[in-house]
Design a protein that fits this description.
Elements: H1 4-40, E1 45-51, E2 57-63, H2 74-80, H3 83-91, H4 98-103, E3 108-110, E4 136-138, H5 140-144, H6 148-153, H7 158-179, H8 183-195
Parallel strand pairs: 3-4
Antiparallel strand pairs: 1-2
Length: 196
Amino acid sequence: MLTRKQLVLKRIFDVSISILALLIVIIPLILLLILAGISTGQRGLFIQKRIGYRGREFNLYKIRTLKGKDHEDILQIKKSETSFGNWLRKTKLDELPQLWNVLNSTMSMVGPRPDIPGYADLLEGEDRIILSVKPGITGPATLKYKNEDQILLQQPDPKKYNDEVIWPDKVKINKKYVEEWSLGKDLGYLWASLIN
């Protein structure tokens, strides 16, 4: 578990990077939100409840990529995804609004990805160490499963595969991340995310 000093250092890093990034992407972000609104026929900003720090729910912000009703099932997501939304998801540009999540202290630049209710909030015992840090825009599990959608679409039962294979592996990776945290590693994960 991170010490108080490490948590403060991580927060200073988060605020510095997110402010710098927002200054660079604010105009493109506004344009992408407008285009997403046109593409989906709905508001371009998508808000979803996720589980974060200490198991608390928070509002996660993304650029909308789907037409009509929002889905959690990967097959339904692909059916209702617009071509522009597909491009946003592939490039991860749909996650740019999460820079605001970092600024408002509900997320970190690097950490375990926040999940919908029914996963992280059900962690028990030693696994709950994952909830001792704020969820991140990127991190080691995010990098390993950057093509998660494609992996799931190849499975006969995507939800079962996620629950029995991917999720337990993410828990293992994220536990190691928290236990071995360093600012240098966070910089490395951030750099790896930018170049991949």
